[in-house]
Structures are given as C-alpha cells and as structure tokens.
Amino acid sequence: MTNHHSLGDASTRFAFLKAWTLFSKSCGDELSLTPPIYDRLLDVPKAYENRLKQTRLESFYETPSCDGPSDRVRATFVLARAHINRLKKQVLTQLKSVEYVSSFTVTCGYIWSCMVKSFVKMGELKGEDELEQFIFSVNCRSRLDPPLPASYFGNCAAPCVLTIKNVVLTGENGFVIATKLIGEGLSKLVNNKEGILKDAERWYDDFKLPARKIGVSGTPKFDFYDIDFGWGKPIKYEVVSLYSMGTISIGASKESAGQGLEIGVCFPSMQMEAFANIFNHGLEISFSSLPLSLLTPPHPPTTTEPSTSTTTDLDTAPPLDHCPYPTPLTSIVAKSLTYLQISFDPPFSLRPQPPATTTDPQPLHLLFCLPTPRRACIVADLMLEKKELDVGFIDLFPDLGFEISTRFNGGVGVVVTVDKFWWHYSFRVVSSKTVAVRQRGFLRLDLSHDGFLEQWRCLDLSHGVTEERETEKKRDGEVVFPYSTRKPEIRHVEGDSVALTFIECTLDFNDLTRNHPRKCENFHSLVPSLGNGVKVSEYVTLPVFSVQVTYFPNSGISIGMTNHHSLGDASTRFGFLKAWTSVYDSGGDHAFLTSGSLPVFDRLVDIPKVFEDRLNQTKLENFYQPRTFLGPSDRVRATFVLTRTHINGLKKHVLTKLPSLEYVSSFTVTCGYIWSCMVKSFVKMGEKKGEDELEQFIIAVGCRPRLNPPLPASYFGNCSAPCIVTIKKVVLSGENGFVIAAKLIGEGISKMVNNKEGILKDAARWHDDFKIPARKIGVSGTPKFDFYDIDFGWGKPIKNEVVSIDYSGSVSISACKESAQDLEIGVSFESMQMEVFAKIFNDGLEKCTLDFNDLTGNHPRKCEYFYPLVPPLGSTVKESDYVTLPLFSVQVTYFPNSGISIGMTNHHSLGDANTRFGFLKAWTSVYVSGGDQSFLTNGSPPVYDRFVDIPKLDEIRLKETRLEGFYQPPSLVGPTDRVRATFVLARTHINGLKKHVLTQLPSLEYVSSFTVTCGYLWSCIVKSLVKVGEKKGEDELEQFVIAVDCRSRLDPPLPTTYFGNCSAPCVVSIKHGVLIGESGFVIAAKLIGEGINKMVNNKEGILKDAEKWHDGLKNPARKMSVSGTPKLNFYDTDFGWGKPIKYECVSIDYTGSVAINASEESTQDLEIAMCYPSMQMEAFAKIFNDGLESAIVS
C-alpha cells in the first residue's frame, strides 16, 4: 500500500486494514463497525496557516520514489523482551534518578547510537560539535482538548525532535544519554499542562538546525501481524518507504505476541554489516549468518526477565505516527508491504480459509547429572541468595567416604573434596611447549535452577557451616620442573586434586551453540584457567589440568577443559573423556579398569638428544606462564562445515590441476583450502606484505603407531611431531594457491610418515623451520576423534569448540556433529575479516562443488562457475617457419546423481555455429546408430572443399596477421563480479515488439523476429549502462555486429554441410543519444533490418563489398555482437540419453556478445544469454522486462 501522508497516519492505515479484513470475512454482510470520523473541527494553530501559504506546489506534488537498483539493502532485527529488559537495566544502572524509561525510549536510544556509530565505522569524519537529530511523532488524538476519537481518519501527530552532539552519541555512554533525552523530550511533550499544541508554532524550528535527521516510522502499538483476511496472518510486514525517508521502522514482533520489537533498517550493504556488528555486539548476540546475507537473527528464548522498572512499557508507550515529518504539508509517501503465505488450488479463490493448525515439536527433557572424577575439588560458584546454604551433589561413588571442608565468601562459594582420584601418574615428558589447550562441549538440557540443584543429593553440611575456616591448600596434579636435571615430570601425590569449577551463566545458550560468528569474549568465561605456577628454590611446579561446568538455566550445560599441552595431546584428551563417560555410565570404575584399555604411562622411548638440549635452554619464567585470553575485543569465532560433497569437490579440483599427484586426502585438501582462504582474507583486508614474504602451516602428526617399537593408542601423554610447510605469500594468495598448498601439505606429511628410517629420523631439525620469519598458522584437533560421540548418558554434545584458537593463531578441524564424513572448521578473526573470510571460503566452495540444477537455470549465475566446464585449446607450437594452432577440444563433466555437461572449445577458423551444430548432429548420429556407417551413407557428410575465390583484401589481411597475437586465444579469467543469465522472448513478446515497430514505422520493409530482437536487446543493454552511471556523449557511436551466413548466398552456393567458417560481418552504427532515447529500439531494429537486407540482397553478390567489411570495425565505437542463431536448434541434439536441458555459449563472457538461440521449450521462442557485472544485470533485467510489458500492452 502507498498513501500520501496527508491522507492518514499509522492509526488510520491500521484501522483501514482492520475494516477491510472484516468486510472480506463477512463477504459484504452488514457489519457493526465504528465508522471513521472525518470532521475537521479543530482550530489550526496560526503557524500552520503560515506554513501552508509558504508551500511550493511544484515540490508538494512530486513525491519521492524508490529508485533502484542500488547498493542499499534492508534487514530486520528483533529485540526480544529479554533484550529490552537488559537495555532498561543498563540505563537505570547508570542513571538511577531518570524518571521516564520505557521499552520505546531504550529501543530508540539504542538504535540511534548504533546507527551513528555505524557511520563512524564506515569512515565518516564529523566534527565534535556537529549535531545529530532523532525525530518521532506522537499521536495527538487523545491529547487534544476536546480529544478526538480513536477512529478519527487523518493525520493527527506532533513531532518530537531530539538533538545531541555527534561525539556524545558515539561515545561509550551514547545509548544511555540518548535514551534519557528521548524520554525527557517525550515526557515534556505529552505532559504539557497547557496542552500538546502549546508549542506548536515552534515544532518546526528544530528542523532548521543543520544536523543529520533520523526518524521513526511505525509503532508497536498497532500489531500489523494481527491482520487476517481469512487466509492466515501475515508472515512479514515491511515499511518500504524507509528507502527514501531516512528512517527506521519499529513494530510489534510477529513471534512474541507484542513482547518483542521488530526493527527495520535500510543501509548500503557494507554499512549494514557494520551496523549489524555494533547492534549485536551491544546485545551480546550475533546475526544468524555471514556473509554471508543479512537475515533476521534467530529469536532468542522469550522467557520474560523480571522488569527492572515500573515505568511505561510497550502497552502504555505513547503511540508513534508513521512519519517523522507530520502535517499535510509534507510530501512524504508511506509505502508498506505485507506478505501472506497462502496456497490456493486453481482457480484462484479469495474465500476465507481456516487457518492451518501446526504442532510445534516439544523439547526433549533430560535429567542432568554431573559425573565427578574421584578426588575432585568442586567449586560451586552459585548465585545463591544469602539464606540457608543449600547445595547438593549426586553421590556417584557411594562406596567412598567424603572428606568435607568448606570455605565461604559471602555465602556463595563451597569447596567439596572427594577422597580418592583414579588418575595416578608420574612420568617424564619430552615437550616443553607452553600452550594451554582449552576445549569446551555443550549439552542441551531443559532444567530450571531448582531442578538442576535437585539432581544433586544433598550433603549434610551443617557441621561445617557453624564457623568460617580456610580449607587446607590442595594441589592439582602438576608439572614439576627441577632446576638440577631440567627434566620435567608430571607428579601426583596423595592429597592432590583436579579443580572442577561450577558456575551459572546467563548468556544465550542457543546463540553460543550455533555456527554463525559469535563474540570470542563470551566463550572465555566458560573455560577454566590453569592457575599460577609456583617457583621455589629447587623447582617450579605448573598446574596442568582443570575442568569447569557451566549451567545455563533451562537450556543446558557446557563442560570446559584446560590442560597444559605437556600433559597430553588430542588423543589423550579424547581418551580421558571416553574413560570419564565409561566410569560414569557404568556407575563405577570397575568396568573401565577391567576393559583392557587403561591409559599407558610408561616412558620407554629414547628421547633424541636434541630434546634434552632444548630443555636445557628453556627459560623457566616463560615456561610457567600460560597464555591468557584478552578481552573485550572485536574478535568473533565461527564454525564452517565442509560436507563430503565439498571435500570431494576440492579433491577433484586438485586432481584436475595436478593429475599425477600421489598424496591427496580429505585432510590435506581441507588444510590447503583453509590456509589459502585465510591468507587471501588478510590480503583482502589490505595487508601489505612483500611478494617474497613467507607463510607457514603447522600440523601435529601423531607418532604413536610410527615409533619403533610403536606405542599403544592408549598411551597417555603428548606424542606428536610437527610437520611445517612453507610457501610464498604471493603464491598462496594467487589463483592456484589452494592447489599448491594442498600439494605441499600432502608431500610434507607423506615424507614424514613414510620415512624409512623412522619418524624420529629428522627430529633434530623439527624446530629449525620455526625460526623462519613467517606467519604461522596451525591446526588444532583432528577429525579422527569424534568428540560428538561422547555421552555421559544425557545425550551427545550439540557443539564442540576449541577455545584456545582465539590466541594461538590456529584453526580447529574436527569431525562434524551431523556426519563423521563431514568436517567442522573453527576459525577466529576480527569481525570484518570474518566476513571477508566467509565470502572467500563460500565462493571457493561453490566453484569446486558446482550445483547442476543451479547451473542449468536461467537466473543470474556467477560466470566463473562455468569456466571449469569448458576445456582450454591447449598449447601452440611455434617452429622456425610456421606455427601450429590447436583447433578443437571437448570435455565431459560428470555431476554425480545429476547429469553431465559437454563442453566444446574451437578456434573460430575451424568453423562457425553451422559447423559446430553439424558436428554435434554427426556425433549423435554415430553414437545412436552404434557406428558411422549410417552417417556415412545418409548423404550428408561434411564438405571440406575450398573452391571459393578469396577476395584480394583477405589475402592482404592474412599477410598482415601477426602470428604471436593470432595463436593466443583469449582465456576465461575469474573470479569476477560478472554473472550470466538467460532471458526468454516468447512468441507473444516478439509479436508485440514487431507490432510496436510497425506502429511507428508502418512503411518499413524488412521486419523479422531476429531484427526486432537484436534492436530491442541493443537498446536495453546501452540503457542499462547509463542506469549504472556510465557517462557518454550523445554523439558518440554505438555499433552492433551480426555474422551473416554466406553458404547459400555465394555463386555458386556452398552446401549447408560445408565444414568451416563462412560468414560475413554486418556492422550497424548509431549515435548513443539516439539509441537510449524513447524510440531507440525502433530505430535500432530499422537499421539492423536495413543492414542485413542490403547485404543479403546485393544483386552483385554478398562478396561485392567484402573489401569494406572491416572498415566499419575500425571505427572507435563500442561494439556489441551476436553469437549463435535461432535457425540451429541445439536442443534437438540427442545421444540417446534425452535432449539437453540447457545450452550456454560460455565465450560471451569475454567477447562482449549476446547469444541468441532457439528456446528449449519452443522453437517459436528465443533464448537470450548475456554476461554483465551483477549491478548492470539487475538494471538490464528491469529495463528488459518493463519494456516487454509496455510493448505487449501497446
């Protein structure tokens, strides 16, 4: 719907829709409706009469339009009730004395500050004193004296204009100050004791201030999602006029029955990404997908938080008018879209349909039980009220006695120590790595806070709470590094324990467990720290392991583990978890102890001397300080899934480029692909590095089975060797960077694991490569260990994260939750780089794993997707006195379970479209008949004779040909922004175009389907260039080139089976200004027809003016040409498998041509294929389709 704002405001539009739906449902019956009130009995303030006198009519009746295409996108953000309450709480925490805080004021303040910050993020420079204004309109109906009824039909709103300095709004407290100003302004306007019209004459003074103005359209008071014509309620409501008004829309949310708000915004695409980051960062949630496209984020749980204020809420917030510039004077036009999801059987019926009933899936209720390792120190950091302490634990080991001691800190902390611990060890380690590995798994549970606590058996703590006392200092198992031997040991003595911390968290569980980009800092509190090392006179002790369980009320838990890398590698961590679950699942450790898979702690391998030397060089002060997380920051983490289809596509891509490569695995192509995508993202972000600067990729190779003698798989410790691959950055970021990276990684791993002298042969040189000055990217984890198969009995984890990649510069690779055949890739970047990485990653996968159905559609598809499907011609050979040029090649591409494509490339000197079509027909004939006998005897073999006299000019041109240029055919280059699309001209369209031409030029002699098609396309193409901003003088020339078949027009004529290139160029020229004018298409069709007619009907033969054919091509004009012809129906070729479903001329991507061929559906219709940058394609499509509608209507 579109209405001039003087007709009515949001209240009027909503009432109109409600009345319309009632009429629709009643099928015209009498209704009991409150009729609208049209009376205008109000005294208009003098200021309004003066403004009306000043109105310029010529601007008044020119309403703004939604011009397009542009780079602007629109998106909807959802503020759930929990978000709104959190924003209120933040305001009231900082401004305890503020009087007016409502859902509306905090929403407006928050969005206003986010919007202005997004401008700054995009590089906008504004002075500190420059102003920002926020404008919304307040419904005046009930606030007039006397009040107007709610059914008043018209625009009855007052503007509330708030002004603030840019530097204040973009500051740390900008949102809070903005909320305060909006609340004060609104309160002052509606609570004016002298009436809302008291200051009406000054309402517009603030509009004159030189400030950027942002307004609000819509109001949450009117629920447009409650509109129902009988087909069901709307699934989406949009205020389209945001595009031209510079406003935001605020409305009731569809999902939350008025408890939440939908925020509609419209920005250029890059700014939308910046806004989304700022908006979600402030709410501590993230958007649902990147780069990828900007969609409405998933709705967080709608559990209502307790209100932090008794001030005005949604149900009593002052109603807002749709437009920030009210009164009949303004030329605002309100445009809105309401989408309804309906399905009618033909014929289309508008009879009301009963709404469909759906049954939402019920949540799975699981009991939560925490398996406790024996001899565990459990710190229950519960947010308990200061009352009688009530903390309980399940007794997992009833046969054990408990030593209970307590330590209190304000009544919120309890430490319980269990008497025994099964994990006994004392052994040497060979690694001095100082990395702390942090890992976390999420489990989904549906338990309240009290329900969670009740799953623990209460222990009688009464004897321990009578007095506060410090517990005895307990030690974890720890690394002991003696100064004398400098050979570290992992030591456990009686009394040691492993710290197990329990906390409660209010972060969004659903958000944390998805794959989309999420703030890194939100994860850091979910993994425990290792604690500090202790340095004494003879040795240093280092904590090696800690566990943390985090409870998310009514959602689930996460189990976070941190271990010093000297304790164990991925195999050890996985073995520990499997053992833990086994002990818990069986109710004790007997089954585990008798399973035959106990961890092996023996250290029987001879350590190469180089490791002892390295240990002697270790600086203790660095050794015992594990790295910690820094926050807050702009870093986000995301998970990308490589499906088996993707992996096979990557393998195929590598083997296509390097068919002789010996070592290609899922892991090597995955690592190579991620590495190249990461480095390309650095380049895309503007990183400046020299071409010779190096990049390194580091993989930890498991050594257990590769030692002599081999170690068992249950060996407990760190037993891995570094495989380091080095490559120049310029190579890795190049077009074939991924392929070369996969090759080098495969060769590096193969060389290491297949070393005949053993994997330790080159151990002395393992760390030499670390000294090379290069950026190092490593891999954490391995897909061999499926952490999603861990089950304590509550169900398997729903998400596994390696948190330490946030500081280690690594990526994580692990088996996927959905399928062990797929891989999950975890990465951590700053938010802008994550968007760049996501685009590079996804675009590359699309190229390697092409979608057969997508490729065979007519919609715009990336041009580069087609390049791997057509073969190159091969290399030319230059001898001393001649050059040989390859002429023809064929490629068949198989798409598993979908189909095949046949790609052909030929040098144009070999043959034209007629020759290619003849070749395909001959090939199919030979194939279908099982041999060439039928083809050879049917009387239509190709004719190769060259009997035509070549005009003198052609001989001269051949002598002028430069061989070095001639034998280098153009190549398909990608990636680019170019897309290709197919448009279908039905017979109805073609007849409409013909009629349009003949209506304007009734005496025109030569009008054919081909000439009107070419003329129409030519004019649309040039107009699309103008639409995207091309500047050309009106007198500059445009040229259109058509290849005319000469076979039947020579004297004597050549047979249709002549094999070769036999065509003549018809070149038509026209001024740019004429072609883009109103009659451009008609004039173009006329000129093309006259040009073809003149050439083919030349009484002296088609070769008469051959010497002038190329003169026209020398003209400095833009040239557009036609490839293909509708006379040859390529959809009629059949090898016996069925006819083709799509035909594409791929070479138009670099020739600047359009392809015109017979349509698949009907030979009466035409298929038009073209290739342009995506923005131009959108412009062309609109011009093309709009013109066809006009031609048919006329």
From TrEMBL:
<dbReference type="Pfam" id="PF02458">
    <property type="entry name" value="Transferase"/>
</dbReference>
<dbReference type="InterPro" id="IPR023213">
    <property type="entry name" value="CAT-like_dom_sf"/>
</dbReference>
<dbReference type="InterPro" id="IPR051504">
    <property type="entry name" value="Plant_metabolite_acyltrans"/>
</dbReference>
<feature type="region of interest" description="Disordered">
    <location>
        <begin position="296"/>
        <end position="319"/>
    </location>
</feature>
<protein>
    <submittedName>
        <fullName>Uncharacterized protein</fullName>
    </submittedName>
</protein>
<keyword id="KW-0808">Transferase</keyword>
<feature type="compositionally biased region" description="Low complexity">
    <location>
        <begin position="304"/>
        <end position="319"/>
    </location>
</feature>
<dbReference type="GO" id="GO:0016747">
    <property type="term" value="F:acyltransferase activity, transferring groups other than amino-acyl groups"/>
</dbReference>
<keyword id="KW-0012">Acyltransferase</keyword>
